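Quick one: structure tokens for this chain, please?
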Amino acid sequence: MQKRKIIFRDISWLSFNDRVLQEAADETVPLRERIRFLGIFSNNLDEFFRVRVAALKRMVEFGKKSKMHLEHTPDAIIEEIQDIVVEQQKEFERIWNEILRELKKERIYLLNETQLNKAQQAFVLDYFNDEIRNNIIPLMIESIQNFPVLNDKSIYLACKLSKKDKSIPQKFALVSVPTRRLSRFIILPSKNADSHIILLEDIIRFCLPHIFSFFGYDTFSAHIIKVTRDAEIDIDNDISTSLIQKIEKGLKNRKKGKPVRFVFDKAIDPALLTYLVRRLGLLQKDNLIPGGRIHNFVDFMNFPESVFHKKSLRKKPFIHPVLKNVNSVTNVVLKRDVLLHFPYHAFDSVIDLLREAAIDPEVVSIKLTGYRLADRSKIINALTNAVRNGKLVTVVLELRARFDEEANLEWKEELEDAGAKVLLGVPNVKVHAKICLIKKRVNNRTIHYGFVSTGNLNEKTAAVYSDTCLLTCDRNIMADVNRIFNYLEQPKTRIQLLKKCKTLMVSPTGMRKQLLQLINREIKIAKLKKPAAITLKLNSLSDEMLIDKLYEAAKAGVEIKTVIRGIYCLPAESKKNKFPVQAISIVDEYLEHARIMIFHNGGKEKTFISSADWMVRNIDHRVEVACPIFEKNIQQEIKDILQIQLKDNMKARILDNDLSNQYVNPRNTKKIRSQVETYNYLFRKSS
């Protein structure tokens, strides 16, 4: 792959997803987890096509003005994406076939409709009649004038019906597989210690004669197809339409957005494939991707764990040492800062802080931002309880949190029914900051406390996402958090409040300028021949202005170390740099999600946690927060954990210009798996 001054972000993202695929291929990873990584890979790729490839296709329609970096046209990028994805799909199938062999060694068998014994056939037929029949609507597609809109997240069996003696013409049909209403995995009756599983679509395949027999056909074939659609919600600027109505309209439009990818079982009947492509209005350049028998592997993230003899060895989160065996989380936070590291530390402490506030007679109000909340959110439960206890509760819900819009609309209704005040973000700007402000009146004095987090306030994802959350009553931090909420309540008239934030770096008003100033200071110090360094941990680094500044810093002699999970567009290797940029990516059991920045600052280190990646959208088009860490012991803790990650030689990949994803070489040194070492480091403190 050719080198670029700026590595193109979408190609870099595909390289990240390739690292996920590497985890699925790793034989040292438990079998259940390898299957889960295939599901993650599949889900990632679906979202990539719904959003990024869809955007590129819209740019193609826009014409010549939409050139990419170094004269790359959207057409050229789409073509490169197609080539990469086809190769990744081949590797995916190789890994899956290898996993199937490993499953057999554990006496776990994934059976299809042709492999059932008589008892299993009877079970399957009963299950079809009891559970499935009323949940499917077969479509005879040749007799439908307007071809049905295929749902984006659904899979379909494309069926060919024929008669052996050819006495009646063959017909084509579609059956939607009802995976949203029924489990994709059905455990079959089996003898001994064997575990037999059949997929929902294979039960439907087995029962095709019972579905279509009255047409007189006796031969049936069925293959999985799937359409991925443009998921961007086009929000018009009609000021007479409320944001809620726009979102609801956009969600409806998403379901019938333009197809951006069509995946299919490569064994499908060629005539049926040609018919489907024509009726869907697709062309070869529309990412027609052949694959294996199974699609929508996202469901395999929920592959039944009960069939495995070796259960997950994932360690349980533990309570932060200063919060163990205390009567009140609040009392601790009012005395000192506490930094929680998820998923090592328990998320319960955040819930407890809110629950205590909900019933504390001295608490006046609670304000909080919500981006992606858990399905049965304990956060929402605590807030509604606070309303019932007479507190003023304000929740900022970002209705444009992609793929969570519908859920957030439902949370809005529940909160408002309880009596909370719900704010719906800011026009043209997403609210991505994760902040909470609690006001408490003690002896006619107002005390502010709360938290600033790098991750969503979601107890479910906190169990698998690596994030940090600062519980604090620092007056300067809380004063800025208060300014942000005051702005969010009246964004049209109070933008100046964001500019008045003195302690927090806040986008879209001041973060870019402050980051550039911090990097410039390191450059200035390096030019004086003094130690200068920047350590960054981010999900994505693609902002060209910040990349240029980092490149300038590296040339000046600033030591730059980066841990980037996903998109990485900074050329890491250059003979021009006095200190080449060290760049690694860690993909392991937990999703590395925290954003952390350390600037050497002439020996007086400045440490920040942040909700923002270094991308244009985060810095210029979202409300984001970067929070300084003041307590020396917490600064050291963050630094220690980053050093553990930078020494990872088991799950770290080198981010080079060729996107080769080579593992860091242990070189006969002690093997270090950073997520295990981080757990041990924090657990020792807890003990």
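The domain at 9-303 is CATH 3.30.1840.10 (polyphosphate kinase like).
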